[in-house]
Automatic annotation (TrEMBL):
This is DNA helicase. GO terms for molecular function: ATP binding; hydrolase activity; single-stranded DNA binding; single-stranded DNA helicase activity. Pfam families: MCM_OB (PF17207). It comes from Physocladia obscura. Keywords: ATP-binding, DNA damage, DNA repair, DNA-binding, Helicase, Hydrolase, Nucleotide-binding, Nucleus. Residues 156-277 form the MCM OB domain. It catalyses: ATP + H2O = ADP + phosphate + H(+). It is an enzyme of class 3 (hydrolase). It is found in: Nucleus. Residues 1-23 have a biased composition (Polar residues).
């Protein structure tokens, strides 16, 4: 089971992928470098002023390398007569396979230290591959890439504050699951003075309101959330689980109480496990 938290962006990874030209709807062979420098779905994955796209963005080489990798995945599924559809929103990939096929020198370290940007880059790359394969039928929505087989297990006793924002793997038994609830991730607010709208990200579900109006010359300071289905307000499914460590055989009869940790699941990860699962 994987658990990751938020962390600020760090330096870019070295890459042997060459970047030039602009994106093309024409399918490229998976063994050739991808020369995409414009990513149509960029704002879906990097939603914030700190991640404005530019042609020399530090993540561009990684996204292009991941796009090449997903071409091989799409071709593999097609060969096995399990074709990937353009509507697919979640895909699971092997950690070992990703490491061996991507041309990034420090992928393992980067995933560990900056999981948020790496996972977002993987999702964007998957969208890029679908766009180049299927064209305009690919809808503008967020896709998730789930990494399987990350074998660097972190014992529960080592879960300390120094691991905040890191990509880690824990192993244990599910002892409790909560009911599924909605959690808001972004809210569209409307200015009561000029009706201008703006979207505010709700980090970890904590309610946050705008501080100023984006309207020209408007000094409004009062905003109301838009709740209609046509607004940019977004909620996702949320669930909390409790994981209990598996004690070694030589400690099972020692009387020590197993450690537990609570984890939060969202979106496609909810409602997948029940108490007793490992």
């Amino acid at each position: 089971m994987k658990r990751s938290n938020h962390q600020s962006q760090d330096g870019s990874a070295a890459s042997s992928v060459n970047i030039s030209g602009v994106s093309s709807a024409k399918r490229r062979p998976p063994n050739r470098p991808i020369d995409v420098v414009r990513f149509p779905h960029w704002s879906v994955y990097f939603d914030g002023a700190s991640e404005i796209y530019s042609d020399d963005h530090e993540l561009a080489p990684a996204i292009n390398a991941f796009t090449t990798y997903f071409f091989t995945i799409i071709d593999k599924y097609a060969t096995e007569k399990k074709p990937i559809k353009p509507s697919l929103r979640v895909i699971a990939i092997s950690y070992a396979d990703l490491q061996s096929q991507c041309q990034l020198q420090d992928l393992s370290e980067r995933l560990k230290l900056d999981p948020e940007s790496v996972l977002a880059s993987l999702g964007l790359a998957f969208s890029n591959a679908l766009i180049e394969k299927f064209g305009d039928v690919v809808k503008r929505l967020k896709r998730h890439v789930r990494i399987l087989g990350h074998d660097q297990i972190t014992p529960l006793k080592d879960l300390k504050s120094n691991l905040m924002g890191r990509f880690i793997t824990i192993r244990g038994t599910i002892v409790r699951v909560s009911s599924i609830k909605p959690i808001v991730t972004r809210i569209s607010f409307s200015c009561t003075s000029c009706s201008a709208t703006q979207v505010i990200l709700q980090i970890d579900g904590k309610y946050k309101t705008p501080t100023s109006c984006p309207g020209d010359g408007c000094r409004g300071r009062t905003f109301v959330p838009e709740r209609s289905g046509l607004s940019d307000t977004k909620t996702v499914d949320w669930q909390r689980i409790r994981v209990q460590e598996k004690l070694p055989e030589d400690q099972k009869d020692s009387g020590r109480i197993p450690r537990t940790v609570e984890c939060e699941l969202t979106e496609d990860l909810v409602d997948l496990i029940v108490p007793g699962d490992v």
